[in-house]
Amino acid sequence: MSPTDPSAEHLPASPPDLTGDPADLPGEPGASESGELTEDTAGARPLLAGEQVRLEDHKGRKHLVTLEPGKTFHTHRGGIVLDDLIGQPEGVVVKSTGGVPYLALRPLLSDYVLAMPRGAAVVYPKDTAQILVAADVFPGAHVVEAGAGSGSLTCALLRAVGPEGRVSSYERRDDFAAIARRNVERFFGGPQPTWDLTVGDVVSAPTRPRVDRIVLDMLAPWECVDWAAQALVPGGVLCCYVATTTQLARTVETARAHGGFTEPQASETMVRTWHVEGLAVRPDHRMIGHTGFLVTTRRLAPGVSAPGRRRRPAPGAYGENYDGPRPAGQQVD
């Protein structure tokens, strides 16, 4: 189960309307009026049939479309003949039958994630970026992911580990696993030889050979801490993505009480866009706020216990009303 999925009203506001017709603005040097490849754009990879393209109008409204020969994509401002885009370079402008110009570009991963079909809520781009850095996912790494969901994080992990790495994903629900597989294969254009998707519980996964990184996006990641300790190489990173403060507390305290991990680090990320126009420079009124918490910790060498905490817990932190895991030696306050 993935953390909070913010509604569209929490997404950054669309850019303000542009004055004038973008189609009448001067193009980049070397681009022909028709958008055909010229000497200056010959190195660009043309848009191909079967690929996805992002169409954006002058109000910032975006559509993700698959280029199918002979087909027309219909909008409320007229149809767009997809044959007019096939073979063109990225960054061309095509007009609908209603005369509205649309900018055509290949979608970024962040575009695809926000538009992909969903089973479970997706891991949003701002959290995906933090996971890749906090877990230090590197080329050639073997990463185990539990809670494949809709496959958004899987796409980013596969890119990060590269052709020499491996991502092993586990998903308890058949329907979510099927959606994740379709989304990943659609994004990459087919099955990925560096990816395994298993329907089942991650705690039943083999612990040998040991893996470099474990990313848990699930309801109760604390139930997997003992298994993760067996599966990770010394120095390996365990990263958990949870939605609520109760899940956050239980995950941190379980990893802390285990004794075989470093002191867990907890964080959340919020993104606020800015409006920049001449002398009007100010934060936008909307932002992407809370979506989930990240907990990261590293595996110690076998038989080594984590050093004791130097700071004293806040008064009452482990009082009589606390019923969760306790760090070694911690008595009731």
TrEMBL record:
Q: What name is this protein filed under?
A: tRNA (Adenine57-N1/adenine58-N1)-methyltransferase
Question: Where do the tRNA (adenine(58)-N(1))-methyltransferase catalytic subunit TRM61 C-terminal domain residues begin and end?
Answer: 113-277
Q: Where is this region: Disordered?
A: 1-43, 301-333
Q: Which GO terms describe its biological process?
A: tRNA methylation
User: Annotated Gene Ontology MF terms?
Assistant: tRNA (adenine(57)-N1)/(adenine(58)-N1)-methyltransferase activity; tRNA (adenine(58)-N1)-methyltransferase activity
Pfam families assigned? GCD14, TrmI-like_N
The organism encoding this protein is Actinopolymorpha rutila
Q: Single GO cellular component annotation?
A: tRNA (m1A) methyltransferase complex
CDD domains, alphabetically? AdoMet_MTases
Q: Which UniProt keywords apply?
A: Methyltransferase, S-adenosyl-L-methionine, Transferase, tRNA processing
**Enzyme Commission designation:** 2.1.1.219, 2.1.1.220
Enzyme class per UniProt: transferase
| Keyword Transferase appears in the UniProt entry | yes
